[in-house]
Amino acid sequence: MGDESAIAERKLLVVDDDPPFRARLGRAMEGYGFQVQLAEGIEDALRLAHLHKPGYAVVDMRLEDGNGLDLVPQLRDVRPDMRVVILTGYGNIASAVSAVKTGVVDYLAKPADAEAVANALLAHEDSAPPPPPENPMSADRVRWEHIQRVYELCGRNVSETARRLNMHRRTLQRILAKRAPR
């Protein structure tokens, strides 16, 4: 089989360390005509990529065994024309730029719906940009996501997180105690 027929087969590798999300996305992508292989980490993804040579991949940025951005060049070594989409719950401009530099075709915030993922994978470079999302994250949600990300990166240390965010520790504790805004 040549590369064109493999893309026509729509082989897709989904790499995510969250089993329920991985399974849901895999089932949904099968509904879009993809033959889906599911991987929970980098080692598993590389094994499946070498075995199946998929034309498409959806990779979570933060995996239990490493960073999804580090996996992208390795996947493209297996198949240079592979179309890769990065998913992340901790989006920021620096990681989006890094993702684009590795050759991903899109960078989507979690929880991304299957339609957005399919559109990103199947979009052509010369096509019009996708319309803005119907329900984008609110400014409060974006702020909360940023605070949570810094908190995690600081090893869940409230004092260090407050210092880095230039915020009073008690204010940060109140924010962390609340549920995520919608």
UniProtKB/TrEMBL annotation:
> Sorted alphabetically, which keywords does the UniProt record give?
Phosphoprotein
The answer to whether UniProt assigns keyword Hydrolase to this entry is: no
Q: Does the keyword Phosphoprotein apply?
A: yes
User: Which InterPro entries does this one have?
Assistant: ActR_PrrA_rreg (IPR047772), Bact_response_regulator (IPR050595), CheY-like_superfamily (IPR011006), Sig_transdc_resp-reg_receiver (IPR001789)
Residues annotated as coiled-coil are: none
> What SMART domains does the database record attribute to this sequence?
REC
Q: Gene3D superfamilies per the record?
A: 3.40.50.2300, Homeodomain-like (1.10.10.60)
In the record, which positions carry 4-aspartylphosphate? 60
The Response regulatory domain, residue ranges: 11-125
The record's Gene Ontology biological-process terms are:
phosphorelay signal transduction system
Q: Which SUPFAM superfamilies match?
A: CheY-like
What the entry lists under PROSITE patterns is as follows:
RESPONSE_REGULATORY (PS50110)
The record, for PANTHER family, names: CHEMOTAXIS TWO-COMPONENT RESPONSE REGULATOR, STRESS RESPONSE REGULATOR PROTEIN 1
Protein name as annotated? Two-component system response regulator
Q: Which organism is it from?
A: Iodidimonas gelatinilytica
Q: What would be the name of the gene that encodes this protein?
A: spdR
